[in-house]
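for the writeup, i need someone to sanity check this before i put it in the appendix. the sequnce is what the collaborator sent (i think, or maybe the updated version? ugh). structure was predicted straight from it, no edits. if anything looks off just tell me and ill rerun, i have time this weekend
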Amino acid sequence: MGWLLNGVYLMLAVCISPVILWKRFRTGKYRDGWGQKLLGKLPERETNGPCVWFHAVSVGEVLQLRTVLRELLNQRPDLEIVVSTTTSTGHAVAKEQFPDHTVCYFPLDFTWAVKHAFRRIRPTAIVLVELELWPNFIRIASKMNIPLALINGRISERSFRGYSRIRPLMRNLLRRFDLLAAQDPTYAERLIELGAPREVVHVTGSVKFDGINTQRDNSATQSIQESLGLKTDETVLLAGSTQSPEEEVAIRIWLALRDEFPKLRLVLVPRHQERFEEVAELVGRFNLPLVRRSVVRDSSHSAPPQADATPVVLVDTLGELAACWGFADMAFVGGSLSVGRGGQNMIEPAAYGVAVVVGPDTKNFRSVVEMLQTGNAIRVAADAEELQTTFLDWLRNPEDAREIGQRAQALVLTQQGATSRTCELLLPLLDGTAKP
């Protein structure tokens, strides 16, 4: 089976290599970590103590680990931690968030890469975040008797339909897990229907609700706000985790609204690092002045006052969006306006009490959006026109926006506690008391 999969992967690699090479040349993606990915040359662990290998695909999953690692290490300070990622952006954020731990790239699912990685890391247990099922990796870990866990698990309706077509393979993989911790009962039942043993499936809630900031006067938020030249008497519209063409939509909406509301400011935070320059050029094509967070952060001065025109703000740095939501009055959470992307995390702005609007495609956060909609604590816009109408309504009725934000914050606070439940389930894996 392993070598059969190797052959399939090699054929796929040959087919997509022109795309990878093109993106590497055009955007700078896919340049790092090939020794770790292709050959499993992960950093070799020199100690023999207990080690937990956490795998987080990209930025969102990496940030979810902050509270889990903090609580787990509080209970087991002897643990050595390894964090692997798939994307370069996730790798950069993991390096920044976990400077005291080993950060590396996840090996591609070739048998030789996986086996070499295991020999170098020698993990006591492996913890996957959300849903990342690679057959060779899981099979080899199981054969080596390394406990396997999935935390904050979720499986969308679309993914469930796809996995159902390969149910025998999914059953074979899922039965190798010692722990499957799902975000909600729906996700848990989908895992069981795909073949997971019911006794290893647990509902813990989402760790995304834990460890998030609810205080707007925190030092990180205030520092960034000041550096960007955003005044307290201005109204901030923040479009965060955006993907093309959502930045252009946000700019056009801001231009349409600013004549009636001259103190309205626009802040753009693109989802992907490789698009920072593209978005800066987009602002330039509108002949608008621009303040870049990377420039003012690396200088000793904040953004200079603009006498002639109000600038657009571009946050072109990694790991700062969570703090930026704290100075927003209204927010659009990106990846949701175009169908097929599934939306990004709206929990962080909701926790600050920001009035949040999303597009029609939020399947990645369906349960969260449904909860907020039930509590009248979020708006869903069908298209760009409805998005503009929502912002206009909030600007003309700011008390409505404040009330929506307050309801959202209250709902988020009621959902916390998943981190403790997750760590309580993980500890037996390290003590040898989990399922044999």
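The chain has a mean pLDDT of 93. The two ends are 24 Å apart (CA to CA).
thx in advance!!
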